[in-house]
Design brief:
Layout (H helix, E strand, L loop, with lengths): L5 E6 L2 H11 L8 E6 H11 L4 E5 L5 H17 L7 E5 L13 E4 L4 H6 L1 H4 L3 H7 L2 H7 L7 H24 L3 H12 L2 H5 L4 H12 L3 H25 L6
Parallel strand pairs: 1-2, 1-3, 3-4, 4-5
Length: about 250
């Protein structure tokens, strides 16, 4: 398991690294681990030794190509070791429109602020509260305007269709069958579950776009994230409507 509060900062060279470490270190609590490395090779060596709760990677034009490759190699390492994907954020002086958009969770602006990065975990990291919110079935259905008399039928449709759709899409991605995967992701994107649970929508849209672009690595990562959001929803349906699974 990663440390509850541990940050890895990746920079292209020592000159920008030290000021950023200097910004962040005084704000970090005593038990927070803060490490800085130069370049992708050092980052991968450090990740073999330690699991971090957040990775920050500098976004500079001169470092763009290496940054893309570093993120891809980090994801490959995590897959080989059977690890969950570590949240990765770009750090830049200004908002960025970056080519890593489907491989990272977002961006934070410098000067770095610990509270914005790690202090309030629900701002950047998955949290129990966010998960509980995701599975408020009755409220989600009411918000969509569905009458309570239809809740059971809607739950039955989601419970019967989504698991097989996810399995089919996973198999197609693993086989590199992008035409079939594109059709399967389109079905998920237009599913009743995607309409009822808005937290699914950005992930399903990003996944569909990655498949359309033929970006296999991004598609697999986004599929894992989408499946992770579906799981508590399906579990909540099973708990709320146990007869669906009989």
């Amino acid at each position: 398991m990663p440390d509850p509060s541990s940050i890895l900062l990746i920079e292209p060279d020592d000159e920008p690294l030290q000021p950023l470490l200097g910004q962040l270190a005084p704000q970090c609590p005593t038990l927070c681990r803060l490490d800085g490395v130069i370049g992708g090779e050092e980052a991968l060596e450090r990740l073999l030794e330690h699991r971090y709760s957040i990775i920050l990677i500098s976004w500079l034009a001169s470092f763009e190509e290496e940054a893309v490759e570093t993120v891809r190699r980090i994801r490959q390492l995590e897959q080989l070791q059977g690890r969950d994907a570590t949240p990765i954020y770009l750090c830049a002086a200004q908002p960025v429109n970056h080519s890593l958009g489907r491989l990272v969770q977002g961006a934070v602006q410098t000067p770095l602020k610990y509270q914005a990065i790690c202090g309030d975990e629900k701002s950047l990291l998955p949290s129990a509260a966010a998960q509980d919110e995701a599975v408020d079935l009755a409220q989600a259905m009411r918000d969509t305007g569905l009458p309570e008399s239809s809740f059971m039928e809607v739950a039955r449709v989601i419970s019967s269709q989504i698991p097989s759709a996810l399995l089919r899409l996973q198999q197609e991605l693993e086989a590199g069958q992008f035409e079939q995967a594109r059709e399967s992701s389109h079905i998920l994107k237009g599913s009743m579950a995607n309409i009822i649970f808005p937290q699914l929508q950005p992930r399903s849209h990003s996944l569909h776009q990655a498949i359309r672009d033929g970006d296999g690595e991004a598609a697999k990562l986004l599929f894992a994230q989408l499946k992770g959001v579906f799981e508590p929803i399906l579990q909540a349906l099973e708990k709320r409507f146990p007869t669906l699974c009989e």
